[in-house]
Design a protein that fits this description.
Elements: E1 32-38, H1 43-48, H2 52-59, E2 70-76, H3 84-100
Parallel strand pairs: 1-2
Amino acid sequence: MVHDICWSLPAPTSNEFGGSVGLVPRLNNVQQIVGISTYGAPKHVVTLAGDNGRRMIANGVRHGIAPGATLTWLGLYGIEGTTREQRVDFLKQVDTLVKAL
């Protein structure tokens, strides 16, 4: 299940002193972000590389939604080396998480 969200950034705004007030969250009704991803590399390699997918969501997208919104991330690392049973277990975790939303 994939949900597409159209993002729109507000026009730059100014405070009473003429300075920018920065990014103003417009998706205040979004209280939770869930990221689900598979990785080809093991978790320690992804972590050393900065886990860019998770970081982009955590540090970028989260600023445009409600303050205090939570981020839940499920990752299956080193997918090429996983067994069918491990992949099925991961899908069960995904199913459980999605049903709990």
